[in-house]
């Protein structure tokens, strides 16, 4: 009997393309490394507010770099990112509150569906330039992830409850307590120590901390599923 899996927490928001990149890499490695991956839907606007950070898209030079960087990383990591035409509106105005409340509610009742539903929301906004702010958009993503219309509607109705609102806030607060100033954040619990890693490009360092082998963003044993 081998050692118990180490716990990895991934704090993410579907408004963040870097979160999608980190998410896909960890989903590829979760059955290769000796880890238990916990997906933690988080509200990025809350993290930014609490930390005093500002979206990089507010600075013209950073915004220009971000657009090119996300596309390069998507190609390298084999994640089908295509920037939305109204990039700044998506990032700075439309937000992701309903989507993240939906994922929070789903995680509470059916965590086994969280990976697929999260991916479908990312595919909508960051691959197909589709909306993720309206109820019908959330339902469409949920059904594409394999949920029945009735089940998706029931989870959507829970997004207005204080229980779900408080849970999303608690998760966001937890990310901030770990030191988050943006997303994604991966928290590794290894040998009694806690390591917080920011961004999608610290996976080789994460492998080092875990004592695991890094085989690039698309490990041969898994390959890209997208």
Task: Describe, in plain words, how this protein is organized in 3D.
The structure is a single chain. This protein is α+β, with helices and mostly antiparallel strands. It contains ten helices and four strands, in the order βαβααααααααββα. The chain has a four-stranded mixed sheet, with helices on both faces. β3 (185-190) and β4 form a beta hairpin. α1 (17-29) packs parallel to α3 (60-77), α5 (97-109) packs antiparallel against α6 and α5 (97-109) crosses α9 (162-177). The radius of gyration is 17 Å and the shape is globular. The termini are far apart. The model has no long low-confidence stretch (mean pLDDT 95).
What's the structural blueprint in terms of helices and strands?
Layout: E1 6-12, H1 17-29, E2 35-41, H2 44-51, H3 60-77, H4 87-94, H5 97-109, H6 114-126, H7 135-144, H8 149-157, H9 162-177, E3 185-190, E4 193-198, H10 203-210
Parallel strand pairs: 1-2
Antiparallel strand pairs: 1-3, 3-4
Helix pairs in contact: 1-3, 2-9, 5-6, 5-9, 6-7, 7-8
List key phrases describing it.
226 residues, alpha+beta
Strand order of the largest sheet: 2-1-3-4
**Helix and strand pattern:** EHEHHHHHHHHEEH
Structural class, please?
alpha+beta
Number of helices: 10
The major sheet is characterized as: 4 strands, mixed
Beta-strand share of residues: 5-15%
């Amino acid at each position: 009997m081998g050692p118990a899996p180490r716990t990895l927490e991934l704090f993410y928001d579907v408004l963040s393309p870097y979160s999608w990149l980190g998410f896909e890499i960890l989903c590829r490695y979760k059955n290769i490394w000796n880890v238990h991956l916990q997906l933690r839907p988080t509200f990025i606007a809350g993290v930014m507010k609490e930390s005093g950070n500002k979206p990089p898209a507010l600075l013209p030079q950073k915004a220009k770099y971000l657009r090119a960087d996300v596309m390069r990383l998507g190609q390298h990591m084999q994640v089908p990112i295509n920037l939305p035409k109204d990039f700044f509106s998506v990032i700075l105005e439309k937000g992701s509150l309903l989507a993240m409340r939906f994922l929070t509610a789903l995680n509470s009742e059916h965590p086994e569906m969280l990976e697929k539903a999260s991916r479908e929301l990312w595919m909508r906004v960051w691959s197909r330039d589709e909306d993720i702010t309206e109820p019908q958009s959330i339902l469409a993503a949920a059904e594409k992830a394999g949920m029945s219309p009735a089940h998706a509607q029931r989870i959507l109705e829970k997004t207005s409850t204080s229980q779900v609102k408080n849970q999303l806030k608690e998760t966001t607060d937890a990310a901030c307590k770990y030191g988050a100033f943006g997303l994604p954040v991966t928290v590794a619990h290894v040998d009694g120590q806690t390591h917080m890693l920011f961004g999608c490009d610290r996976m080789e360092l994460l492998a080092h901390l875990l004592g695991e082998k890094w085989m690039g963003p698309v490990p041969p044993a898994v390959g890209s599923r997208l």
